[in-house]
Write a structure and sequence with these properties.
By secondary structure, the chain is of the alpha+beta class. The chain has 19 helices and 18 strands. Among the domains are: 85 residues, no CATH class; 56 residues, no CATH class; 172 residues, no CATH class. Helix 1 packs across helix 2 and helix 8 packs parallel to helix 17. The model has no long low-confidence stretch (mean pLDDT 85).
Length: 630
């Protein structure tokens, strides 16, 4: 045996560490290989004494009696170093032996009949582990305890929010999921095996009664967990449709549906999110609410309009539906930084600039999703800035839409003409009936007279009757022709951030897509549409549970992105669906039946997700009972 010096370098600090090991040479496949026998730490002995130390340690390890040869004596420094090395060696050996004993002590061995092996009560576990971990990380159990929730209520609150995220549906379907499909009741403080449906409705009401405290806590906690997020708030409004008449629901009103379901009663949700799509505040409005009036109410709820408010005001980004003159004056009055597209045809004021943007050297060109956007910054006299934008992708989309509806309008005109002409034995002959049909076309196509002209040919022999109707299309749209409409694809962004350049302002405004993504997740991933609740309080509770679930979703996806994993929740949920928890039934040689509740071993895909989210997935075995086979 011999002593070898080993050097390691810290990759972060580049510091070099030195240690020494007792090594022996062994043969592996006919070739000599070094094998570490003992770790010695860092030796202070001179190198010329290393052979003596190696010989002394070899003798002690093998139990040999070392002979005192003439002229060769073991120095005291070598002997003391050997004593210390052997003491550490025996200590590590004893620790290793005790560790093995702890592993084997108390283990029960059984001789079982393999043919009687069975499994029952399989429940999903993967997504539940993720939701439970984020729920704990957001310190929601601690908050609910301070708000007066008992252990069972805290458990039910966690289960109903996780259910909305994992198996979205009605409260009835969530109750069935908790009882018969999920292992969430085994992760919460209290078991939910005997959870009643009415208690599930009651916990929704109790969570809603503390809505403001919960939202403020989540905002504060998420800022602490993810402090690098911007103070950029995005506000928009969406609506959901009801199934049923909802006669007693004060939120259910008919209005313009963003889901093309104006035939149903609606409820509106105002949502403020930050630039990373984390919810900041939410408020529920009647379905027929005027969008502009919601801004003041949501700002008041957030406390941003309170007297004495001294904190830095966030930058607000909003769409043209909310950006009225009154709301812009409100933002200026309270000195909010803002970015928005105002209502009205502001782009018509810059017709000349948009018509000649290619020849205007002040327009910059940027690319987004393979399409070019041309932007120009214009400074106004009232200390505001306007950014002129013309998007090739937006122009192509608008032109394609106009082309599609003009084709449909032309088909309707042709159908009307066919009904009028006498040679076709038309059914529409009176002039009043013809103009009634044209009125319906105008209702269907709001810009009909802008792109079509028509003339009713009266019958000279019969007053009030027509022989024919002639029509022609004034404009033929082509997605590659800019001369058709020079303002197509153009819009104007207004802001008070005068210090930023055009590209920075445009990029900040485009973050508004994050609130649109939030609405898509709430409606699709969290299954909030359509509504089946007929009462106003149930409607509020249903939406607030969805908002809390969306908090979990944002934290999950954000943590995954920090690990360079851009999978969305729907994909994560599908990947974790195969991690289950079940009861294994064993029968031993004495005909005793053993029921053991245990979790499945995580697969590679499961471990990858758990590691990125910082989750430890243990076996968590639990023996329920032992019975005698009859």
């Amino acid at each position: 045996m011999y002593i070898r010096e080993v050097k390691t370098t810290n990759k972060k600090t580049s510091k070099v560490y030195v240690k020494h090991v007792l090594t022996e040479s062994v043969r592996v496949n006919g070739s000599p290989r070094p094998r570490t026998v003992m770790h010695l730490g860092r030796l202070e002995l001179p190198r010329d004494l290393w052979p003596q130390l190696a010989a002394e340690l070899t003798a002690r390890l093998t139990g040999q009696q070392k002979l005192d040869l003439p002229g060769i004596k073991i120095r005291k420094c070598v002997a003391s170093t050997a004593d210390q090395a052997m003491e550490n060696f025996y200590l590590r050996e004893e620790q290793h032996r005790r560790k093995l004993e702890r592993k084997t002590t108390g283990q029960e061995t059984l001789e079982i009949r393999v043919e009687d092996l069975a499994m029952t009560h399989s429940r999903s576990l993967g997504s539940e582990l993720v939701c439970h971990h984020i729920w704990e990380e957001l310190q929601l159990p601690k908050l609910l305890r301070t708000l007066g929730f008992n252990a069972m209520e805290r458990s039910m609150g966690e289960a109903v929010v996780a259910g909305r995220l994992i198996a979205p549906g009605s409260e009835l379907s969530t109750w069935r999921w908790i009882r018969k499909q999920s292992a969430i009741g085994e992760l919460t403080e209290e078991s939910l095996d005997k959870l009643g449906l009415n208690r599930l409705y009651n916990i929704s009401d109790k969570l809603l009664s503390h809505k403001n405290e919960i939202e403020r806590h989540l905002l504060k906690r998420e800022k602490k967990l993810h402090p690098d997020r911007d103070m950029l708030y995005l506000f928009d409004l969406t609506n959901f449709h009801f199934e049923g008449q909802c006669l007693g629901n004060s939120f259910a009103h008919r209005g313009k549906s963003k889901q093309k379901r104006s035939d149903c009663p609606l409820v509106s949700l105002g949502l403020v999110v930050d630039s990373d799509s984390f919810p900041v505040s939410s408020k529920i409005f009647p379905g027929n609410v005027s969008e502009p009036q919601t801004l003041r109410e949501i700002l008041e709820q957030m406390g941003l309009l309170d007297e004495g408010f001294s904190a830095m005001r966030p930058t607000l980004v909003m769409d043209r539906g909310i950006a009225t003159v009154e709301n812009i004056d409100l933002l200026k009055e309270y000195e909010f930084p803002y970015i928005l597209i105002t209502r009205g045809p502001r782009n018509k004021h810059y017709l000349n600039e948009f018509s000649n943007y290619k020849d205007d050297g002040e327009f910059e060109t940027i690319e987004r999703n393979g399409k070019q956007i041309h932007i120009k910054k214009v400074i106004k006299d009232d200390n505001t800035v306007e950014v002129l934008c013309i998007s090739e992708g937006k122009r192509q989309k608008e032109t394609a839409m106009k082309q599609r509806w003009t084709e449909h309008a032309a088909e309707d005109f042709a159908s009307l003409q066919h009904s009028v002409r006498s040679e076709n034995k038309g059914t529409v002959k009176t002039i009043d009936k013809i103009y009634e049909r044209i009125g319906r076309l105008k209702e269907r196509y709001s810009s009909l007279t802008k792109y079509f002209e028509y003339k009713v040919i009266e019958n000279p022999e019969r007053i009030g009757y027509a022989l024919d109707i002639e029509y022609s299309q004034l404009t033929v749209f082509d997605t590659g022709n800019e001369e058709t409409d020079p303002l197509s694809g153009s819009y104007v962004i207004e802001t008070g951030l005068t210090e930023k350049n055009a590209q920075e302002i445009w990029q900040l405004y485009m973050t508004l897509t994050m609130v649109e993504a939030a609405f898509r997740s709430i409606k699709s991933d969290l299954g909030t549409r359509p509504f089946y609740h007929q009462g106003a309080e149930r409607t509020e509770g249903h939406l607030f549970i969805a908002i809390m679930a969306y908090h979990l979703l944002c934290n999950i996806e954000y943590k995954m992105k920090q690990k360079n994993d851009c999978r969305q929740w729907q994909t994560i949920r599908e990947d974790l669906a195969t991690h289950q928890r079940a009861t294994v039934i064993l029968t031993d040689k004495e005909d005793k039946i053993h029921h053991i509740r245990m979790s499945g071993m995580p697969e590679t895909e499961h471990k990858d997700i758990y590691d990125k989210l910082g989750i430890k997935a243990s076996k968590n075995m639990k023996k329920y009972f032992i019975a005698k086979r009859l």
